[in-house]
Each structure stands twice: as structure tokens, then as C-alpha cells.
Amino acid sequence: MEQRIYEGYIKILNEELLPAMGCTEPISVAYASALARETLGTVPERVEISVSGNILKNVKSVIVPNTGGLKGVTAAAAAGIIAGNACKKLQVLEGITDGERQAVSDYLKNGNFKVTHAQNGCVFDIGVKVYADGHYAFVRIEGHHTNVVTVEKDGKQIVCGKICGEDNKLTDRSILNVKDIFEFAETVPLSDIEEIISRQIEFNSAIAEEGLKNDYGAKIGKILLSSFGENIHIRAKATAAAGSDARMNGCSLPVVIVSGSGNQGMTASLPVAVYAKHLGVSREKTLRAVALSDLITVHLKTGIGRLSAYCGAVSAGAGAGAGVCYLYGGNCEEISNTIVNALAIESGLICDGAKSSCAAKIASAVDAGLTGMEMSRSGSTFNGGDGILETGVEKTIDNVGDLARVGMKETDEEIIRLMIKNIG
Fold this sequence. Notes:
By secondary structure, the protein is an alpha+beta fold. The chain folds into two domains: 21-167, CATH 3.30.1330; 172-419, 2-methylcitrate dehydratase PrpD. Helices cover 55% and strands 12% of the residues. The protein has 16 helices and ten strands. The protein has a six-stranded mixed beta sheet with strand order 3-2-4-5-6-7. It has a two-stranded antiparallel sheet with strand order 1-10. β6 (148-153) and β7 form a beta hairpin. α13 (332-346) packs parallel to α15. The longest helix has 20 residues, at 194-213. The radius of gyration is 21 Å and the shape is globular.
């Protein structure tokens, strides 16, 4: 493949496969708040937080990790201010002590917080303004979870676009297509992906095991196994769901994310890893299959956007189905058909925020991906012209992007209206 494409895919994997603790939207709020507090130089007397609707819906109902069960925008901000380490970015709340947890709780009860709904047209927008002793600091994150676009103190801009010497500009995702992703997975030197893909499997498997051992949230993973048995299809769904059970309900173990989402990172990787173990394939084949699943997930999400009314687990479930198809020796056409089938089955699943039911949606999305894979392996494929499908996987992917980004925009606004009552 072209060197430009190859290098771009390596960069995309390195940009996407980041370790994160907890749901990434409250963590991003905590990150912005920690950075604002560090810029101010002291614990603020007053905190003003402005966030877009999609941030509100994804922070509202999920537990902020290492806080003892706290939820909400103000909880995330308080944790970042009192105990966060901004240099750790998406692991900003790592290593909080019992004493710090109590301090966060006290600050949340006694602090002066104001949360407003930013309606400036930016889907991903977080602004944190903090005040103390006649001074203020302001931090804004826009577009994706660590993309700090503004840091200022008392009206003077400190930095814009780069934090800790890192450029937050992402590689152009328009270079992604199924044909090149398949060729990349087949030919990439293992040394170029082994470290990051191995970390993804290790971290995500650990939190899934935690979810299967203990009672987190709605216990979707455990219920699937106890109710439907231990066959490989159920085990693949249950493992991914269990990771979400734990992550959405306060487990502090890190996950490796994809498309800014830990749930998508687990959905794209865990079913593939479970099937790889079941099939007894080589470690190399496993890593290549997970890399393929990750890139397919990112490709599907590119036209949709980081946050929308379209559940991102659908994209990751299709990616997982494609990865499992690869494990079975599927060629590019069979993988393409798997993706089309999965999208035909599951597109339309809504995102109504991060919470316990995400685990059930993940199970459903993985089921669609695996069903699409089995259809493809059996020579059965939904046809172009059926519903939103078009002939050719790339045209179908474009249609799904339009559906989610444009067609479901009003749906997203209505979901946010229904969800957001008390936005703190």
C-alpha cells in the first residue's frame, strides 16, 4: 500500500488507542477542570462550567471513577479541581486517595458551582472558568476529549492548541477505507502495532474480568452467561458487556479507547480476543484482527462524529464482526459484506447518554456484528437498495454517516431535551 496511507494508519492507531479511566466525557470535564485549577494556582472559590448537550447527556448518569460513586458535571469538575493531575489527561483521576475522595465530596457540597448548556453549535464543547482572590482562569476543550483550544488567566492567553508540548491535531481520517484497512492488517509489520494492540487487549480484558466477577450496574455480562450459556457467541457478547458494566459503574481500572470511547474500545477488541482464544489462532493473527476491527470502527465513526444520537457501539460491533471474520480467514469482500450486514441489522440504535444500559447496547451491537459475519461466511448478504444500503461497502458507510450526522440531528436534540432536567 502507499507509504502515505500506511503511515497515516499507524498514526491513527496511536491517536485512538489511548488509556483512559472511566467514561471519557466526565473525565474530559475533570481534565479541563484540573487544568483550570492549575492555571489559576489555587482552589477556586467559584466554578462556572459550560458544556454542550452531548457532554451533558454523557456525564449525567455515569459514575465518575475514584469518587465513591458521585455522578454529574459538578462531581467531575470537583474531582478534577481537588484531586486531578492534568498531565495525565484521560487518566486525570488516577490514584486518588481516601482523603482526597472526602475532600472532593466536601468541596462538592460546599463549593459554588454553576453549570450551563452551551448551545453554540459545537457538538463537543467544554468550558471551565474558575475564580479566586480576584483572579480567574479559563480552559476550553473542543472537538475531542483532550483537544485543549484555550487556556487563559486574567484575560491573557497562556497556550492554544498545544498542552505539555503535544499537538492535538488529529490525522485526516478520510484516508480510511475498507480495502486499505484490510491490506494494512495483512501486511503491517507486527512490531509497528504489537505494543498498542497488546495493551488494548490486556487492559480491556482486565476490566471485563472484573465485570464478570463482581456485581456492577445491571450485570448484563453476568446475566448473559448465566441465562444463555457459555457458547462462543454468548461469551463474546458477555465479555464486552461486562467491561461496560464495570466501567459505567465506577470501576477505576483503565480501558483503551477507540473513537474517544472506552465502550467502543472494548466492543472493538474483546469479542475478537475471545474468538481468537476459542479458535486457537496465533498471537500475530489476533493482533492483526484487532487492529482491523479498531480501524473499521474509526472509519465508520468518522462520518458520524465523536458524539451523536447514533450509538457508537453499532460501529464497534460491526468492527468486531469484521475482526472475527478475519480470524476465520475472511477476505476483503467477506469482511465488507460483514460490515454491510451489521449496519443493516443495527443502525438506528440511539445514544441517550453513558449509563448502565450501555452494556446491553454493546451486547446487541456485538450480536449484530457476529450475525453479519456468519451471514457473510454463509454467502448471504443484504443487497444494495434495501433500505439505506447501497451497492458497495463505502457507499453504505457514507449513508450511515449521513443518517447519523444529519438525519438524527433533531433526534439528538430531542434526546437531550428529554434527558436534561437538572444539569449539574
